[in-house]
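Bumping with the actual sequence this time:
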Amino acid sequence: QVQLVESGGGLVQAGGSLRLSCTASGYTFSTPHMGWIRQAPGKEREFVARINWNSGFTTYADSVKGRFTISRDNARNTMYLQMPNLKPEDTAVYYCAASTRVPTSPEGYAYWGQGTQVTVSS
């Protein structure tokens, strides 16, 4: 069993920055693929970024590539999403998720956190 808890969301103006955190507990050794998924109101869940917990290899959605940065601290079982230069279209609930295999869609993740709200005003 794996438990995931997100934090760091909030309300910011366009151009502002936030850093999201995700702490993992439980049996995490079998879930090396960790990622961030977001869901805007009325929209389907959207992949944002993922990281291989062991190798550190990262993958980003085109919409955030070159802007957001995903990272992890293995000793603390903590994953981060640095989000500079936020845009109103980034407004969504952001979820931390984990999978035993490389997910091909947000539905491929087996474990989810409760989500943290990110709101970007114009």
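The tokens above came from a reply further down the thread. The chain is about 0% helix and 50% strand.
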